[in-house]
Amino acid sequence: MNRYLPVAQQHFLTALASTSVVVKSICATVLLLYLISWEVNTHVVLGVTPGYLFPPNFWIWTLVTHPMVEQHVWGVAVNVGTVIVAGRLLEPLWGALELLIFFAVVNISAGLFSGLSYVLTYATTFDLRYLFAVHVYGSPTFLGGVLVALKQTSGDSTVLRVPQVRLKAAPALALLALAILRLAGLLDSSAPLAGCGYGALAGWVYLRFYQRHSRGRGDMSDHFAFASFFPEALQPAVGFVAGLVHTALVKVKVCRKMVKRYDVGAPSSITISLPGTDPQDAERRRQLALKALNERLKRVEDQSSWPSMEDEEDDDTDEIRTDAPLLPARDPSPPAPSTTQNPTGPESSIISFEDAPANS
């Protein structure tokens, strides 16, 4: 075990060094708050506590600080790992500023809706534990958003080969794992499950409708629809309900109806607006096709050793000797005219006729 620690440390430092100042700052803050947690209950002061978030207490700063609070070393590892993965896979596509905006939107939204859910639960059960004994903090909120973003950018990538698990199923698997841990009693409360679920939902809403990019705003491609997060058997029903909710939100102007744009490479530079497929989906499929082609070519190169050039030359020589004709080929050039040629026509090159001598 000890021999793997230097290798893991080297990979960690290499990955961290290649990220931007945004990722490094978040990781440093997580480590700092973890050290402070040895003396102070940071999960209470800086985490989202439903009873303190809303008036009259109004601890609004916890919406910003809760994703960087950890109480255990494995929580620090998951938190820092999630941020580094986002920096390595999402930051090159979005940029450091957009990654920071995504971090803020996901965590603030997840903290707010998690606290509101527990307040509504208290209003139903009148159990004060839902107000003051529950603390939402740590990596689950941002983890849910990052998994959704990775589903959008590289959903068809394989995470596990046996059994085969693709990255597009990662958000649902993360929620399932947290639910199992909660039912098994390994989690103190349902706050991590709520945080991860609301983080995934907030990340999807932002990426689906509001994220700005060179092609406009949002991603309305079919592979990123809300129903695609569910098993195939449930997708028709979920898609129908999600369509009704989206239509209602469009009518109240919370969401807007999206129109896809296509740039047709023609001399007239025509731009067509159609409600069909998104160009971002086409670009994603093109990248996946190129990746599959590169992997296939690499597998072909790694197969059995190729025959040497000398063997190929010997085979070619044998083929030439075998295919050589038994009779010499005729010269395709026409024969030179003979000086004794009959003026009435050309002489045969096979049989020649001479004038018989005249009888005296």
UniProtKB/TrEMBL annotation:
SUPFAM superfamilies, A to Z: Rhomboid-like
Biased composition, class Polar residues, residue ranges: 338-351
Disordered: region residues: 300-360
Gene Ontology terms describing biological process: retrograde vesicle-mediated transport, Golgi to endoplasmic reticulum
Biased amino acid composition, Acidic residues: 309-318
A Pfam family annotated for this UniProt entry: DUF1751
Keyword set, alphabetical order: Membrane, Transmembrane, Transmembrane helix
Intracellular or extracellular location(s): Membrane
Membrane topology, from the record: Multi-pass membrane protein
InterPro entries: Rhomboid-like_sf, TMEM115/Pdh1/Rbl19
One annotated Gene Ontology cellular component of this protein: membrane
Protein name, per record: Transmembrane protein 115
Organism the protein comes from: Electrophorus voltai
